[in-house]
Amino acid sequence: MRKEDLQLGDQILITTRNSTYSIHVLQENLYSVSGGWFDRQGLSPSKVAINGCTWGGRAIKWDIVAACGLHLEFGNQVVTSRIMEFQVIRCQEGFVN
């Protein structure tokens, strides 16, 4: 899923090998994130940027929010385990979370 394909209010549910994340689009490159590391740290929901997705190394696809087989990197440098699946729930027109 590319960042440019998301709209204000959309929600992305991401299941990684170790966790589940719920991500709401607040504005361009600002997201409200719950689940996984954020829950374990008592920080859910957190407003963070998304840097992009990696293959597990330093190279990053900055335009991608979720892709099966890749790792999601948040703006606070937290990197998820490998993404197993994701689902985009489109915001109903006129309704923003």
How would you summarize what this structure contains?
The protein has 97 residues and is mainly beta. It is built from one helix and eight strands, in the order E-E-E-H-E-E-E-E-E.
Number of strands: 8
Number of helices: 1
Distance between the termini: 20 Å
Give the count of structural domains.
1
The secondary structure category is mainly beta
Query: What integer value in Å does the Rg equal?
Result: 12 Å
Query: Secondary-structure element order, as H and E?
Result: EEEHEEEEE
Strands of the biggest beta sheet: in what spatial order?
4-3-2-1-8
Largest sheet: 5 strands, antiparallel
On the 0 to 100 scale, the average pLDDT is 94
Shape: globular
Low-pLDDT stretches are none
β content, as a range? 35-45%
Give the helix proportion (percent range). under 10%
Can you describe this structure?
The chain is mainly beta and 97 residues long. The chain has one helix spanning 36-40; strands at 11-16, 20-27, 30-35, 46-48, 50-54, 60-61, 71-74, 83-89. The strands form two sheets. It has a five-stranded antiparallel beta sheet with strand order 4-3-2-1-8. The chain has a three-stranded antiparallel beta sheet with strand order 6-5-7, with no helix packed on it. The model has no long low-confidence stretch (mean pLDDT 94). 22% of the residues are buried. The protein has one domain (3-89). It has one helix and eight strands.
